[in-house]
Design goal:
It is built from 4 helices and 10 strands. Strand 2 and strand 3 form a beta hairpin.
Length: 158
């Protein structure tokens, strides 16, 4: 199977991470639910890579289950900042080097703190963006430790 060699793929290869690539038809605003439906996998195991900014305009990344949302209030409390809000698509693309909808936590242009919902590490396998719209990679959740991801409990079940 031919799959794109993105910055994320280069990063995973460089760190000798085993991964299984999956391509699907990208649907605008389809998100984790759409990729899970097309690939026949549990949306809970599809991990979203979300870029946020604090009130001081400091960027950060949150990894969250595909069927959960981030409580920005809980995250702000956890980080001891006033507010946290999603970065604009333009800002997120500039920071990560990826298009929104194709953001991978691996091989980002800018080094940012990464926070991962604690329960992600309870899963056997996860599917996370491979750095391009319509492209996920299946990995073990422990791989997220390469990102020095701090565990948080800020998820809200939808």
């Amino acid at each position: 199977m031919d799959f794109p060699v993105t910055q994320a793929v280069r990063y995973l290869r460089e760190h000798k991470v085993e991964f299984v690539p999956y391509l699907y038809d990208y649907v605008e605003k389809g998100g984790a639910k759409e990729s899970a439906r097309q690939l026949g996998i549990d949306v809970h195991a599809v991990i979203k890579t979300l870029v946020f900014e604090t009130n001081e305009r400091k960027p950060l990344v949150v990894l969250m289950h595909g069927d959960w949302e981030v409580s920005t209030k809980s995250l702000a409390r956890h980080l001891d900042v006033k507010t946290i809000e999603p970065a604009t698509p333009d800002k997120a693309s500039k920071l990560t080097g990826y298009l929104v909808g194709g953001t991978s936590p691996f091989g980002m242009k800018t080094k940012m703190p990464v926070y991962a919902e604690r329960t992600i590490f309870d899963l056997d396998r996860i599917w996370i963006n491979g750095g391009k719209r319509g492209f996920l990679v299946e990995i073990k959740p422990d791989v997220l430790r390469l990102l020095e991801a701090a565990e948080v409990e800020v998820g809200i079940e939808k």
